[in-house]
Specification:
The complex is a heterodimer.
Chain A (H helix, E strand, L loop, with lengths): L2 H12 L3 E3 L1 H12 L5 H15 L20 E3 L9 H9 L9 H15 L4 H8 L2 H9 L19 H4 L2 H13 L9 H35 L3 H16 L8 H18 L11 H14 L5 H16 L8 H6 L8 E5 L11 H13 L5 E6 L5 H11 L7 E4 H10 L4 H5 L2 E3 L3 E3 L4 E10 H8 L25 H33 L3 H4 L5 H4 L10 E9 L1 H17 L5 H9 L6 H9 L9 H18 L9 E5 L5 H7 L28 H9 L13 E4 L6 H17 L4 E6 L2 H9 L8 E3 L4 E3 L5 H9 L2 E2 L3
Parallel strand pairs in A: 1-2, 3-4, 4-5, 8-9, 9-10, 11-12, 11-15
Antiparallel strand pairs in A: 5-12, 6-7, 13-14
Chain B lengths: L11 H5 L5 E5 L11 H4 L13 E4 L9 E5 L9 H5 L14 H9 L2 H7 L2 E4 L8 H13 L3 E6 L5 H7 L5 E5 L5 H8 L4 H13 L3 E7 L7 H13 L8 E6 L5 H7 L13 H12 L4 E4 L4
Parallel strand pairs in B: 4-5, 5-6, 6-7, 7-8, 8-9
Antiparallel strand pairs in B: 1-3, 2-3
Helix pairs in contact in B: 4-6, 6-7, 10-12
Classes of the chains: A alpha/beta, B alpha/beta.
Chain lengths: 785, 299
């Protein structure tokens, strides 16, 4: 890498996140002085104020400009969504992991201005007052989490529109939509009018923001002594005057255009998964090709621009989370997950020269953010897979690997058009979406083992003694295993119902009070319909519930069936006593449950058929239930870090797990219970019908030794292809010795750069909480194929 | 097999053994959590340890810092597996199980999707698969019927009729060659090598994919004469359409653990793994006979 990049990268790695109150102050001022106006207009004014007034920052040497905060890693807050208390700030500042420095000034501003205005007014506060007691009880008990209690929905990805059109072209579209409003026949014409006007305001605001950068760049150029930098700043000024108002003409302009839109989206709100350019190699390739052919760009220069682009992502830590949200997503990464490869719109192999160049950038930069993945279709060449695996083998968890053909299948099943399906991909951790056209909101994690715990306790939470769910019967009176399944199903249906009812209220609250007119510009068909992204303006609108802990739940059910009902070597009464006492005095029972029950992940149908049963039950419970945006609820299977939190609130389980220990993660087997090798893990995982989901997550761990040499790469490639042939959605690999990880636990200072794969993203091992660290170590280390 | 580091000295195995083959002796008096009946079953000094006859399985200190000893008398053990089932910590295993050809075929077919991608298949090894020739033949036929690639790993010590019967159903034959000198071969394996060499000569004429495997054990078969003799012998054969190929397998000590678990004495604890250079030399030497030499290392 060039000196410039080395320096920028070093800065990015060293910079420590801190709270910036600038955004909070500007937003509060707007709300304080707002005249009566519709919510979209108010939000547009907020956005405009931010774009006009926020501090600009152009870093020395950087080629792509624009920061969300006043400086790299200066992290804004979003009090209108979640107003942190003084205690929250204290926690953020002092906690060991994922901390954000809070200066005394910041604290004062919060105390004097922000909190007095937003307390009781933020979306978070309002949401909790609107939730029912049963919802709150379930939430407090850890049966599910609520994504939107601290962050706004987001979960969407850009397609290729901004590379073909400038914002001034979008303006024409808005005008057309406005002109076509039917004030006689359409009762919502005025609402649409407000929405479209709001979007127009935001559009102008971003153009203005870009032009401010052009001015600043020129200013800096005037003062700059170094000739080379002077020229660069002049170029930057030119680019910022052109994009995003006009469509980009060059590779550099395309990157800058995207980056401005990205900053806009993450400034408007603290969206989940920030934002994401999606199929970057597809979108940039025409620019790359043209620039190279016309002599405007060399491969080296393209690489440098991409590296600058990469660093931009790394400088935007996820906005601070506290409480449950912090537990379910304990990381700085903001989940922009760039897709490479896959299929083109007409269904052919999408891998191009830029794909390989970007892979090399990923390899060299080795940054926490952005995340990256390859979309692997049967149409993509093996050399593409092998090239990616050489990077995977280095062990820091990127890129992850997706089955592009299954992704298309999932989207088609959901009713997307073929073109929309092929232009889609995966984002966040593993979520499938039709990029540029879909709102695929994750609404919260769902604790499957906890539901089983309730089913084994007649609906009462053994931790608190409170009745949370329906009375499904005392398990000691169950005569057959079917009774257990029936009880589980009833509890499941009940809590899914509670969650969905909550979702449908929260969705409407965001639609009414917090529209997103800026984001709506970029997702079809918001402009055409005149409807906000939060209200169903997208072409496709799905609300997801993420199932967590299916491995633990499966093994638990398998243990109950095997010992209590099949072999009859354990009475239900003894089992219940054993798990209620966390196995104290029941060590031999625990050993038996752990060692002689069928376990998921070993290609053993005695366990796997229960996995598919649980999956089906969860699917049937959720799938198809309407949301308030004209779409439906569906499921996906990923945990981020929630399996650790959910484990903490869950007592001992029949699979032999102790109380409060983490649950299994993703769709992986319970940590350490897969004993028949990686092929059996994949066979088991493939028995799930991935096509019925919006994404599944499979984590596998190998030691470096077995992936050595060409043979190692080939074996890994065969493994991936075979898993995808069986219908798997995704797989990601951790390649690190347990020894190394334990050493890093003992001596974090010397392992600061150790990145491991957590869930659908990589993170610094030393930033992870100890429970999560232990859990990653325990994840099966396969010693041979 | 007994995994001493998993044993918690609960004594369950002692009480379930139908032949009273297992005894548990506590070295310390205070032991209030051992399974009832365990100590009664037999902590007698008369169960003396006879080397080679009994399995003496020493236990380490348990969590309560008391030392125990578990003994299993070989002559009383009928490998019924009750103790295996009963052991809560998985410290016992019967090595080997009875399986029908249907069961085995089904097990093989489980990973077919992986063979299809990688071009892999099944390797029948052991022990010595040709000690169960009828079963092996059935399995090989089942595999070929299902288009699965087959390999057989054998030492070649069998009747030619037995070997030639399976040849049509084997894609790859892995053939051990340890020692060229008949006397030395007898000394180290207990059998003569004449049949082994004869079979290889005949095999090379009718099968086009034979890989000879040479376990290289320092101080035993790594001397110059053996290697030269091997090189001459292999290069003199008429290999059916194939480059004569020999893989060197450097000795490793991973097997020691298994002997311990079986309560058997390891006869060559003093032998050291060959160095990379030594292995390289042997390969060079063999190459000079026009043989393609590969390397198979333990990972």
């Amino acid at each position: 890498m060039t000196e410039r990049i080395a320096l920028l990268r070093e800065q990015s790695l060293k910079a420590k996140p801190y709270i910036s109150t600038e955004r909070a102050e500007l937003v509060t001022a707007v709300y304080k002085n707002a005249r009566v106006a519709s919510p979209p207009i108010i939000r547009a004014l907020v956005f405009r104020t931010l774009m006009e007034r926020k501090t600009l920052y152009i870093n020395d040497g950087e080629l792509i400009v624009g920061e969300r905060g006043p400086a790299p890693k200066a992290t804004p807050t979003y009090p209108e969504i979640c107003c942190h208390s003084l205690i929250d700030l204290e926690v953020l500042d002092s906690r060991e992991k994922i901390s954000f420095a809070v200066s005394p000034e910041a604290r004062n501003i919060y105390e004097e201005e922000i909190i007095p205005f937003w307390k009781g007014r933020s979306m978070r506060d309002m949401i909790f007052t609107q939730m029912t007691d049963e919802w709150k009880a379930a939430y407090d008990a850890g049966i599910f989490t609520e994504f939107m209690e601290q962050r706004s929905p987001g979960h969407t990805v850009l397609d290729d529109k901004i590379y073909k059109k400038g914002l001034l072209d979008f303006k024409k579209d808005i005008r057309e939509s406005l002109a076509s409003l039917d004030y006689v026949g359409d009762s919502r014409a005025y609402d649409k009018h407000e929405q479209l006007v709001a979007m127009d305001i935001c559009l102008d605001a971003l153009i203005h923001f870009a032009r401010r950068h052009a001015e600043k760049a020129l200013e800096l150029a005037g003062e700059e002594k170094d000739e080379r930098r002077k020229t660069e700043l002049a170029q930057i000024a030119e680019i910022c005057s052109h994009v995003p108002a006009y469509a980009p003409r060059t590779f550099w302009e395309a990157l800058q255009a995207y980056w401005f839109v990205h900053v806009g989206v993450i400034t408007e709100y603290n969206t989940w998964d920030s934002f994401n350019p999606g199929r970057l190699d597809q979108h940039l390739y025409p620019f790359y090709k043209k620039d190279i052919e016309e002599g405007r760009l060399t491969e080296e220069e393209a690489k440098e621009l991409l590296q600058c682009f990469w660093i931009k992502f790394n400088n935007q830590p996820a906005p601070p989370k506290v409480g449950v949200t912090a537990e379910e997503s304990a990381t700085y990464t903001d989940f922009a997950n760039i897709n490479l490869g896959g299929l083109t719109a007409d269904g052919s192999d999408g891998v191009n020269d830029l794909t390989y160049l970007i892979l090399n950038v990923i390899d060299e930069m080795r940054l926490l953010q952005p995340s990256s993945n390859i979309q692997l279709s049967s149409k993509n060449p093996d050399r593409f897979l092998r090239h990616a695996l050489r990077i995977v083998r280095k062990g820091w968890g990127q890129p992850s690997i997706f089955n592009a053909d299954m992704v298309v299948q999932e989207l088609l099943r959901q009713g997307k058009s073929l073109a929309d399906a092929r232009c889609g991909g995966t984002s966040g951790c593993v979520e499938t979406g039709a990029f540029g056209k879909e709102s695929y909101i994750l609404t919260g994690y769902f604790n499957l083992p906890k539901v089983l715990e309730l089913a084994l306790n007649d609906g009462v939470d053994p931790r608190s003694g409170i009745r949370l769910g329906p009375a499904t019967g005392c398990p000691k009176e169950f005569e057959s295993f079917d009774n257990v399944l029936h009880a589980f199903e009833k509890q499941l249906d009940y809590f899914v119902g509670v969650k969905i009812r909550g979702n449908n209220v929260i969705e409407r609250m965001y639609a009414k009070y917090m529209p997103a007119p800026f984001l709506s510009l970029f997702i079809d068909d918001c402009i055409k319909k005149g409807i906000d992204y939060h209200e169903g303006g997208a072409r496709y609108n799905i609300s997801y519930i993420q199932g967590v802990g299916i491995g633990t739940a499966t093994d638990s059910l398998a243990a109950v069936r095997h010992h209590v009902f099949d072999e009859k070597t354990l009475t239900m009464a003894d089992l219940i006593s054993a798990i209620h006492s966390d196995f104290v005095g029941y060590e031999d029972v625990r050993m038996r449950l752990m060692r002689s029950s069928p376990k998921y992940g070993n290609d053993d149908d005695r366990a796997d058929d229960l996995m598919t049963w649980i999956f089906r039950a969860f699917f049937n419970s959720v799938e198809g239930s309407p949301n308030t945006k004209g779409g439906v609820h569906r499921i996906n299977m990923l945990p981020t870090t929630c399996h650790v939190y959910f484990g903490k609130v869950c007592g001992a389980t029949p699979d032999g797990r102790h109380a409060e220990e983490p649950l299994s993660e993703g769709i992986s087997p319970v940590q350490g219970r897969d004993r028949k090798g990686p092929t059996s893990v994949m066979k088991s995982a493939a028995k799930m019908d991935h096509a019925l989901t919006g994404g599944t997550l499979l984590n596998m761990k190998f030691t470096p030794k077995i992936l050595e040499g060409e043979e190692g790469i080939l074996n890994l490639a065969h493994l991936v292809r075979s898993y995808f042939k069986l219908g798997g959605h995704h797989v990601q690999f951790n390649v690190v010795n347990a020894e190394t990880l334990r050493a890093a636990q003992e001596d974090p200072e010397n392992f600061r750069n150790l990145i491991v794969r957590v869930a659908g993203y990589s993170d610094y091992f030393c930033d992870l909480g100890k429970a999560l660290q232990d859990e990653i170590i325990a994840r099966t280390e396969h010693a041979s194929f | 097999m007994f995994f001493s580091d998993r044993c918690t000295f609960c004594g369950t195995c002692v009480s379930v053994c139908p032949n009273h083959a297992v005894t548990l002796k506590a070295v310390s008096r205070e032991s209030n959590w051992i399974h009832p009946g365990a100590l009664e079953a037999g902590s007698r000094e008369t169960d003396r340890v006879h080397p080679g006859q009994d399995m003496l399985l020493e236990g380490r200190g348990s969590e309560m810092n008391r030392a125990y000893e578990i003994h299993t008398l070989q002559k009383k053990c009928i490998a019924c597996g009750e103790c295996v089932k009963a052991c809560p910590s998985g410290a016992r295993e019967v090595a080997g199980r009875v399986v029908t050809s249907d069961e085995l075929t089904r097990e093989i077919m489980k990973d077919v999707v992986f063979y299809d991608s990688s071009g892999g298949g099944v390797t029948f090894s052991g022990g010595e698969p040709l000690l169960q020739p009828d079963f092996l033949l059935v399995l090989l036929r089942e595999c070929k019927e299902r288009e699965i690639h087959t390999a057989v790993d054998t030492c070649g010590f069998t009747e030619w009729e037995t070997l030639s019967a399976i040849v049509p159903y084997v894609d790859l034959i892995l053939y051990d060659l340890k020692c060229m000198d008949t006397g030395m071969h007898f000394q180290f394996t207990g059998r003569s090598n004449e049949v082994i060499l004869e079979n290889l000569i005949r095999l090379s004429k009718i099968h086009s994919n034979v890989t000879v495997r040479f376990p290289l054990i320092p101080g035993i078969n790594d001397n110059e004469e053996n290697i030269v003799s091997m090189g001459e012998f292999l290069s003199s054969l008429r290999w059916e359409g194939n480059q004569p190929r020999i893989n060197v397998l450097p000795y490793h000590k991973t097997g020691i653990g298994k002997y311990e678990r079986l309560g058997r004495a390891y006869s060559i604890p003093h032998v050291v793994q060959p160095t990379d250079e030594a292995v390289g030399c042997v390969r060079d030497r063999l190459r000079r006979f026009g043989l393609e030499t590969g390397l198979e290392e333990a990972r």
